[in-house]
């Protein structure tokens, strides 16, 4: 393959030597000051800065996964994967707003965040109530002055045959899993600045079935994919906010502890990797999507399921 030239519409730029550049020994790459690719007046909608490289030193690969001094809201942060998400974001450098229906259930998560050297704020929140979601964001703005990332993790599930499930049971699942994600995103979207990110937690059961009667849960999680795409389309260009979803497979949590004997073993047999997931693996995916490393990803549902959905 021949190198691109001015005949291809790519103008040349001055060569620079990295040997004497300020970036030497810092692990960061220097960007030429006289970059001349015909994009001088272009503004990145995610950062509000000019140029595709933001006219700043390009981050090293590992630095791009940092969340230093960002403010992250995690709903459903009192147990299960929500605890792992909060701890991972704190370890990546973020301050946390932790939301759950009962504040006293959040104390352990707060301690994990503070042990990582970051600040934590616990807020009692029922995400199925729009007013609660707005109060959660108001508390975050009062305490930290900003919201950079929302992790819509709050969720519930049932396993009831479709002919027996009551309207109240079905609505209760949808109210939290789908409606709650929307109300929380709506409240955050009102205050988020360009470069912010919303991450909705869906499920592999929104993509495939796994042997249990979970119509309400599966429907609510499948709907998250559509919600994610639409919010990404609405807020990408206009607000500079990225919106993505993660569809986890089977990870050890309080929810999997409730499965009937033998069920989890049958899922493991179906998995290409032959095991359940480690919560740290899922948390790493979330940090990627929340960080500058995922800055060109929006409107996507990332499946993290050990291959369950392809068998």
TrEMBL record:
InterPro entries linked to this entry: KR_dom, NAD(P)-bd_dom_sf, Sc_DH/Rdtase_CS, SDR_fam
Cross-referenced SMART domains: PKS_KR
Keywords from the named record: Oxidoreductase
GO molecular function: oxidoreductase activity, acting on the CH-OH group of donors, NAD or NADP as acceptor
Start and end residues of each Ketoreductase domain: 70-249
Superkingdom of origin organism: Bacteria
Pfam family, one: adh_short_C2
Recorded family membership: Belongs to the short-chain dehydrogenases/reductases (SDR) family.
PANTHER family: 3-OXOACYL-[ACYL-CARRIER-PROTEIN] REDUCTASE, SHORT-CHAIN DEHYDROGENASES/REDUCTASES FAMILY MEMBER
Protein name per UniProt: Beta-ketoacyl-ACP reductase
Organism per entry: Mycolicibacterium poriferae
